[in-house]
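Please complete every field before forwarding. Incomplete forms are returned to the sender.

SECTION A: IDENTIFIERS
Entry label: holo-266
Bound molecule: S-adenosylmethionine
Molecule representation: SMILES string

SECTION B: INPUTS
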Amino acid sequence: MDESEVARHWESNANAWTQQARRGADVFRDALNSPAFFAMLPPVRGLRGLDVGCGEGANTRSLARLGARMSAVDIAPTFIRHARSFGEDGAPGIDYRVADGMALPFDAASFDFVTAFMSLMDMPDPARALREAGRVLRAGGFLQFSILHPCFATPHRRIVRDQEGRARAIEIGGYFEGTEGRVDRWWFSTLTEQERTGVQPFSTPIFHRTISQWLDAVTGAGLVIDKLGEPTAGADIARLAPALDETRIAPLSLHVRATKPAGARA
Ligand SMILES: C[S@@+](CC[C@H](N)C(=O)[O-])C[C@H]1O[C@@H](n2cnc3c(N)ncnc32)[C@H](O)[C@@H]1O
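SECTION C: PREDICTED COMPLEX
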């Protein structure tokens, strides 16, 4: 699957995704994944940042509220339209652009840091996207990204539940199968059966890679890994958001922070 087809899928998701995410349906992002990401993020106040695959812009706005001067790109024009139309709301001056994360429209060494929240595994060539992130970073700058966990969000994944419906195990398979844009169809897990009858499921092309392929892609981009994160819901969060129960067995996402070494060529 090529990039224009990926873009068509995301474009078709963008209106419903924005509407549902903004009314709190993306509980994985809001209650677990983004808080863990921000807890791992170094201070960004006063830094120039780029957010790759920004969607409707919630995480970009959080970065701007932390004091970063943000640019952000997404392949789907409707997401960028929604991001722009949100208004400033304490997140001033974000430069949003429709662009491909694998061909960034910025000069080398333009940014102090780059983020990508759950977007790189949606790109046909994540190694190229990582090289692009490395190119636009200044020497000494950092990249932090989250992806579906290569080891636990495999092409086959099934939650094994007990009689009370509690997650007890995760059945995984197909780890070594690279899915070249397999289209998954799904709703935010917080939508009721009734709500699902009224909206189309999202259609998301997935390009699964193994953990060693991801690590090779990061180091191949000239970056040095500093820190990994594997968010898991504590008992309190899982009680408030039962859909996150399964992350107590194994993480659904992997967070990676990597630095472009000082002295690296632009
Ligand atoms: C799972 S959504 C995450 C959105 C946002 N980062 C968030 O955390 O809410 C993945 C996003 O990646 C974008 N995307 C997919 N392929 C892309 C590409 N090649 N370049 C830029 N954005 C891309 C999609 O349009 C979508 O907005």
